[in-house]
Design brief:
- The longest helix has 16 residues.
- The strands form 2 sheets. This protein has an 8-stranded mixed β-sheet. It has a two-stranded antiparallel ribbon with strand order 9-10.
- By secondary structure, it is an alpha/beta fold.
- It is built from 11 helices and 10 strands.
- The two termini are 31 Å apart.
Length: 324
């Protein structure tokens, strides 16, 4: 697979700094029951990387400090980590909001039949990937039969109160080298089609721009579209999106516990090296680990940027919470 990092550095993306940290986004591992073409972490059934119980203990200790308001769980399929349920229980006991980045089909896998009920019991927000309301488009991106299983899983979530009291968001990724359409317009289309055809309701649609990294970056390179896609992102840069980019208040943690400004930087192996102690910025050759957050602050630390950052600021903007 072509490494896209060398094609994204150096960059003229504007310098930005962190504000207060309030969201901890954990990649619990690359193991997944699917292998999607747009996946920027190259997750799949044969991946073995999983966050350990010892690292989960450090996460819980950090949550106990009381600064983190939201725990955002991603992967792979985060639910496939054996520590997933213990972590969710601990976070909810501390009144920390939990988001599960769910691929939906995991809810139907053998051994996970009670997962939807577990999520509902602990009032976990489900943020579910559904790149289109068309069966043909979804199966093309994610594999044959995935759309049908996703619809079944969404109906199960609806029966448990998701979309009607419990928060349920769907995630749209473009099926190629183009920007997402306006989020509000597409959300109305999703709600109409899913309700009329399958009786499904949900709260919000989140449109997320595909990043020219990992699996999607390799596809772009193979098609000779890499540079033109990066140029598309740059041509549509909006200064107004800079203040709201997710990396200013979020830190991404990889399966080994190391810290990154976002999960895209994680995939590009661009960890955080600097920290702040007693209002002094400290540079280090060693990447920061989650244990370092127990006694240090990230406030005002510069964020590492590259050409892919234009993906978050192009057009209507893009983040893990949708358009900016």
């Amino acid at each position: 697979m072509k490494d896209s990092r060398e094609l994204l550095l150096p960059s003229d993306f504007p310098a930005i700094r962190r504000t207060e940290l309030n969201t901890l986004q954990l990649n619990l591992g690359y193991l997944c029951n699917l292998s999607c073409t747009h996946c920027h972490v190259n997750a799949g059934p044969k991946r073995t990387e999983l966050m350990t119980a010892e690292t989960i203990d450090l996460v819980i200790a950090l949550l106990e400090k009381g600064d983190i308001q939201c725990l955002d769980l991603t992967g792979g399929a985060p639910e496939m980590n054996p520590e997933f349920r213990r972590l969710v229980r601990a976070a909810r006991a501390l009144d920390v909001a939990v988001i599960d980045r769910c691929n939906l089909t995991i809810l139907l896998e053998p051994g996970y039949e009670d997962l939807a009920e577990f999520l509902a019991e602990h009032q976990v927000e489900v943020c579910a990937s559904l790149p289109c309301y068309s069966e043909q488009n979804v199966d093309a991106q994610r594999g044959k039969g995935v759309f049908e299983e996703s619809i079944e899983a969404l109906q199960k979530l609806n029966q448990l109160g998701y979309g009607n009291g419990l928060p349920l968001s769907l995630v749209y990724n473009p099926g190629g080298a183009f920007l997402p359409p306006p989020q509000g317009d597409l959300e109305r289309d999703y709600k109409r089609e899913l309700k009329e055809q399958y009786g499904i309701v949900f709260d919000h649609l989140l449109t997320i721009t595909n990043m020219p990294i990992s699996r999607f970056g390799a596809v772009l390179h193979a098609k000779g579209e890499f540079q033109s896609y990066v140029q598309l992102l740059k041509d549509n840069f909006s200064q107004d999106n800079l203040a709201a980019v997710m990396c200013r208040q979020l830190v991404s943690v990889d399966w080994q516990g190391f810290l990154y400004d976002c999960d895209f930087n994680q995939m590009l192996e661009m960890p955080i090296h600097a920290s702040r102690q007693n209002d002094t910025l400290i540079a280090s050759d060693q990447p920061m680990h989650i244990r370092d957050l127990l006694g240090q602050s990230l406030r005002h630390i510069p964020i590492k940027v590259a050409e892919h950052c234009y993906g978050c600021t192009a057009g209507q903007g893009s983040s893990c919470s949708g358009a900016l």
